[in-house]
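Throughout our pipeline, every protein is held as a single compact record rather than as scattered files. Such a record has a labelled line for the sequence and another for the backbone structure tokens. This encoding replaces a full spatial description with a residue-level series of whole-number codes. For reference, a complete record is included directly beneath this paragraph.
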Amino acid sequence: MFREKQFLQLPGPTPVPPRVLRALSEPMINHRGPEFRELLEEVTAGLQWAFQTQNEVIIFPAAGTGGMEAAIVNFISPGEKVLAVSIGVFGNRFAEIAGRFGAVVEKMEFPWGEAANLDQVAERLAADRSGEIKAVLITHNETSTGVFNPIQDLRRKMGHHPALIIVDAVSSLGAIELKTDEWELDVVVVGAQKAFMLPPGLSMVSVSSRAWAAAQKCTNSRYYWDLGSARKYQEKGQTPYTPALPQLTGLRESLRMMKEEGLPRAHARHALMRDMTRRAMRALGLELLAADAAASASLTAVKAPEGVDANRIRRAARENYNVILAGGQQKLDGVIFRVGHLGWVQPLDIVATVAAIEMALLDCGVSVPLGAGVKEAQEVLRQALSGR
């Protein structure tokens, strides 16, 4: 009965605004005609604004993982060495993709729930005096743990090492500050179903001049993911193959919405909802997976009380209160639940979500002070509003 009023508090897919839903239903157009060229030029310029870059941004009809694959096969040849920095599921995925396509992968793994130790990464790069490492793969926001890596610090600590820096920003860009050009990031991958407020199905990749030079020498196999081909067609206002037209008209509308809010306000809104969620969970006596300094503004990972399966809490929230929370992945399955707060989400959605979590905990036999988390979330919100 209330499926269309679900509180979808996932780190992706995220709620889609009515404006974007309407744009998704626009009539089909000729993808080789002037209308499409106008559409492609507008969304490409909008993406450059969102990425904060003058680099070209290429759009693929794909989930974020498709963009990650494109970021491997266009720049890393079989036999070349890459340094993969992993703090969770998606960092491991990036490393696995590189390995599947013949790269020699050296993986630096850090504890789940913590950011990467960038001093250790810098030491490893400094030891690579012959420049064998051709690229550094890193996740900006690790969705599986609710932790973000300070990418700008990594770029600075890399010094003059010639490796490309290839960034998975699928769940961060638009919610967490990322300055592609200022931070000298070579390749940045983003997914549409996160802060861009679209259904899954688009992946966007920005490419620096250094990365384009590497692509010209790359010998890896690619066809669908060929950025060079996509670049040539984009110059003509086209794509190499049939584009996902509804996704692109939706993207045009979501970018207009993002510009209306502005990136600084969007980042502040996401940080506010993060702070509301974290204060609320602590008020309920729940432990958070990530420390404050590394806490993501896109989602919050919460440890279930000892002896309680986190999936029981999620099930109670869904079945009793129509609030959808994400579960833990792999070794965190049943250990944590994740509260998404990115995209088309406002602070009062967090207040309602906290209320549902309180009741779900009680339903699972966990004694919590009803209203304590809601009160803390409200206090954070009111303090933020009073400081405007």
Notes: Residues 263-283 form the longest helix (21 residues). The domain at 18-260 is CATH 3.40.640.10 (Aspartate Aminotransferase; domain 2). The chain has two domains: 18-260, 262-386. The first strand starts at residue 7 and ends at 9.
